[in-house]
Amino acid sequence: MTRPLTPVDVSQDVLYVEDTWREPFAHLRAEAPLSWREDSPFGAYWSAVTHDLVSEIELRHDVFSSRWDKGNITIADSINGQGFPNFIAQDQPIHTAQRRVIAPAFSPSQMIKLDKAVKARTKELLDGLPVGETFDWVERVSIPQTLGMLCILFGMPFEEWRDIKRWSDWASGVSADNLNEEYFAQFMAQMGEMLARFDRELEDRRGKEPSDDLLSRMVHSEAMGNMEPMERIANIALLIVGGNDTTRNSMSALVEAFDTYPEELERLRADPSLTPNAAQEIIRWQSPVTHMRRTALEDTELGGQVIKAGEKVVMWYISANRDEAVFADAERFDVGRANARRHLGFGHGIHRCVGAKLAEDQLATLIGEIARRGWKLAPQGQPTRLASPFLHGFTAMPVRIESH
Asked: Which long-range contacts (CB under 8 A, 24 or more apart) does 153-159 make?
């Protein structure tokens, strides 16, 4: 059978830096929902671009593997034979056992405690913003809000947030520009520095009674208490990236969303009960994780195509969340969208983001505060977008707050 070919390499940074990704994905959804790209800097790969195909791949985790030693969870393969064995880059039973260690940190009782911290941090951050002056929303709001909560989860001093941000940026650096020895050497140096810092915290927790923070949960568990150094690096990096990058980029996207669709902010002011749904909608609309990748463990059929064992299958969340078959008028940011929760921004099935509730709470709290204060977020020039086909985000967002 002739494979439908992907006409545009959708792993190119330029599509995301220049914000021109919509057209190629719309074309693929219409003409080739599952297509094959033979040549890319990351090697050959399948692209799944519709909501139903991405959902099916996620649910067929017995065939479509996340394992780091089979290829890992991003379009980029392991570099120089080094794996990155964190718990989402594992299959069952390792994935399940390690996820169970982390999950209680986001239980309903813990979320009640965390919600108080989220509300206090959000209010304090917004109170300190220079109303009427131009500033960088990413630097002043998105980064300190999400990293501050991460410091709380880790039980670490807030003053260390810049180090944690740097390690997060290195850990999530998927780009064709990074496929070289020099980058890998710097990457390993940064990860080694991160491990040395977190190992001090882990040893501190090991000598104390178990507590609620994530590091204590890890060190006092059978599944994660005695990990090898590379496994510790990978899991700490996962928690850092998952705990800040995705929420950070959705918070930044709010500026674009409310500027493009100002009537949606008016709807929220008129009806604050829409706020939790608006948090779901910004995750769908922004899709802060552009893709995840799986590797076929055996020959299998998907979407009318034969996938061969060992082939790379990329699930483009950013496209699935624009699927008009599921989301009517999908390009529109709609705070009242009835099925906003069907987005795949957090993944689906057993690998769905373990910290999703905290992300949703941080976004809803920020949205609610912006609406309550009667603010208009006026962009002051174009944002700078992240050069990556993995995380969909912003590195700078000049903005001025104007009173409504």
From this structure: 153/105, 153/114, 153/213, 153/214, 153/239, 153/243, 153/358, 154/201, 154/213, 154/214, 154/215, 154/239, 155/201, 155/205, 155/211, 155/213, 155/214, 155/215, 155/216, 156/201
